[in-house]
């Protein structure tokens, strides 16, 4: 978990980077001048920083070409520059001028602080990267001082006297678990995230004037977990990981023997104390965690609650079904699923409901977990796809599409219901109409949170002056599959379609319509491409929506038709499958 990498560096790869659009004070430039007698020279203020973007000092052009085995399309964010800041640039008054002393040989510390592209622009991470621009050179200076008189027996002495070099270069990369996991797998054959990796670039045989220490890669995501467990700040934990990684690059390796571990642990504590930084060294912290029975890093599942701050969204929109997807088998939304939706929206992803339910029913359900209304994911002024895509609401919640069922089909369905005593419910916007009382019709209200059904005494009255979007029949699972579905599939011909969201309910809808077609109407209205959306569903009525989306996720409790067209099959709705899909695939 905490060892130095020792593989042969790969050949250079082409990479792109972006400079953080943020101005830094010149005195925070990451290159500092240290005299060889170990007195740190901090750049005075005011001063002029000469910023160099040359490849020789850039993590883009050199550092990770040789240090990391990255994919060619990986992009980097540069949060620090290798600027040269000389104390001699300060202006003195003539009356204070003193005789010039012989100029000492100066050692330039060139530090690059980088943020991996998939990390969002999190204010805390950006602030930490700025702080590291000052912290890293200080840590290097103290570490170099400690090497001079050290009598460690296990340290690799390939780097012994930094005074023989003109400059020292080091890169520090902040990333998330997903990125460091890829590195850990490529370089150490360990398929799990870790907290810090060190990659040495120093080749003593070349006798270069520049000491290329290498690269320290820190997972901010893992660091955040460890900081919480150990009771200090994220900056404190990153500093601890920085010290650990730096000592690896200077030849310490706690994995080779107990003696080596004891020596590196001692040096960690000494360096942290010298710098005045909080916390214990990483080796001691690991022992404390083990003694307390904490779970090892390898057993922590990535991208769970609270971790989305370390990932950029892959999609602009997530379209979610309700029954069987966001709702469990008790027609309730769990706190885990609610939190996943809340966290996704807080990260800038728009969650849109696409369901067979009425809008009022969805508002009722999500209101119970604080997700309805102005700051929620559904309201009377938000977009949504309802009643199997037959009612679509766009910006400001205005209706942009309505498709009604053929009145002749409605009449035939009502007459069938009366003749065979099969309970029926007709959906008319936010109203539910039926012809006689039945417990299964009542369940629409008591279980599914639909408006309470209005009993209409006759077929004529039910149909007069009323637009019906769909009708549904209730029966047993066997009754639906063996009787209702075969009969109505043949009876309606091309005048309507049958679809099922639940195994004990048959729905009759206008021909050529689907939840997917409703989603497409809404996307066109919003100017959004299907490539920008992820969809989560479970039923036969979700098939077209799952096919339309860039990533379609069918939950394991779903129909075989839905699972057949999905890109991914997730956990069940009773196992918070929608939440898991959001954490796992949306970021």
From TrEMBL:
The keyword Metal-binding applies. Keywords: Endonuclease, Hydrolase, Metal-binding, Nuclease, Zinc. It comes from the Eukaryota. Its cofactor is Zn(2+). InterPro entries: Cof (IPR000150), HAD-like_sf (IPR036412), HAD-SF_hydro_IIB (IPR006379), HAD_sf (IPR023214), MetalPrtase_cat_dom_sf_prd (IPR023091), YbeY (IPR002036), YbeY_CS (IPR020549). NCBIfam families: Cof-subfamily, HAD-SF-IIB, rRNA maturation RNase YbeY. HAMAP family: Endoribonucl_YbeY (MF_00009). Belongs to the endoribonuclease YbeY family. This is Haloacid dehalogenase-like hydrolase family protein. The lineage of its organism: Eukaryota, Viridiplantae, Streptophyta, Embryophyta, Tracheophyta.
